[in-house]
Amino acid sequence: MQNKSSFFSLFEKSFKLSLSNIWRNKVLSLATIFVTGTILFIFNIILAINFITQSALTDLNKKVDITVYLKETTTEEQAQTIAHELQSIKEIAGVNYTSKAQALAQIKTTHPDLSLSFEKYNLGNPLPASLNITTTNPKYHQAVADFLAQDKYQVYLSNVITNNSNDNNIITSVSKNLIKLSDFTHQVIFWLIITFVLGGTLIILNALQITIFTRKHEISVMKLVGASHWFIRSPFIIESIIYGVSAVILSFIMFFSLTGKIQIEDTAFWSYYSGINFILVFLLELIGTILLCIFSSSVAIHEYLKKDLHD
Hints:
The protein is of the alpha+beta class.
């Protein structure tokens, strides 16, 4: 019980002392928080762009299919065999078979005037059966088309609608650009993490070194009266944690303020981020930043105490 009381007493004194240090060097403290928060803000923006890109690729992939039209002589059993062979390809997410009767029923629902023309001119059912192929990524469309170009399939297929049409060319071009953007954001995120770790460490180290320098006389007095190293370190560790927590909060305030004001075609920019678990992102950044701050402050004060001991 006494140990707990002494711990809380030490924490209270260290916390008050850390706040005093921050207030004493308020301009430096604000600069440290702002620079660290800005790095995190840029990271969050790039992370959000990467999420939107991945979502757009997923949605695009769901909308874009390869349609394979079958010859009149192709039986349903043969079509199902082709579909089964296609499903064995890992790049293909699904294959749906549409019979002639199903195709006609769809036309009657979507284009009733056209189906009436069939009856009016006694055309019967001129619609071919088809296979609708969905890939895991639009970049695999050409590979699937090359697979179907094999001689053994040509006797069953009448036409393969893929990247040859104008619409698909546009969609493919968009998907390629999205893939490039996704790859780019992955690289930027990696280097931003490196920048944050190195830059954040140096920024916090620099701020604490200045704080330690301004308080070196007080630290010397504490050492002379027998204060433990933990008591000397704790205010600086708490001070660095306050920097880190404040920087993370500031970065999210900046992020939400920006995304709340920007609109794209009358749609709030914020709505594009609805699928991101920001609570998880916030907690991960908070934990990572706190660990970085503890490491930085420990290095800063350790170097001074080591130097002071030799002096």
